Amino acid sequence: MLVYWLRHGETAWNRLGKIQGCTDIPLDDEGRRQARETAAALSGVTFDRAFSSPLSRARETARIVLQGRGPEVQVLEDLREVNFGSFDGRDMRRSRSDPADPLYLWFHQPASFRPAPGGESLGQAADRIRGVLERSILPLEGSAGRVFVAAHGSVTRIMLTLLMGRPASRFQELSMKNCALSVLEVSGGRVRIVDWGRIFY
């Protein structure tokens, strides 16, 4: 079984370098273009199951890429982006460079990051992402040939880092552009990364 795991297209907050988290920011025109280019590249691929984060930027990406072909997209709450609570909207560049910024550790020592009220830690996010694989993806082996997933940047990088056998705290070592595709192979209950970070625009 192959899993086509896609980060959503660009949003205005991506372009401005703002932390989005679970704030529901829609795709911008460039994000829609990225999704259309990805749809064209995958036009020959058929999917047996499809999942999306509940956030509209992921759901719209899935809708554009699938173009009405294949199964109905099932929304999985646990595919949502990392929840930064009241830290949403902060300037990512400032947070990366200012040790006094409450998000500084997220970028440099994420295992030590302390979430805002209502937010989640790296460990909580990693457990949630493991759960998606274990409860929703792996059980499809044998009944599905290809599965489509539309998710988010941090979620995808954490997932890939775990599959590489590394601690989740190393996920910042990976970069992930908007609408980047990763392909996973599931065989005998094991998951192997076939490709990651591929873009088609």
UniProtKB/TrEMBL annotation:
It comes from the Bacteria. Its EC number is 3.1.3.-. Keywords: Hydrolase. InterPro entries: His_Pase_superF_clade-1, His_PPase_superfam, PGM_Phosphatase. CDD domains: HP_PGM_like (cd07067). One of its GO terms (molecular function) is hydrolase activity. It is an enzyme of class 3 (hydrolase). This is Histidine phosphatase family protein. It comes from Mesosutterella faecium.
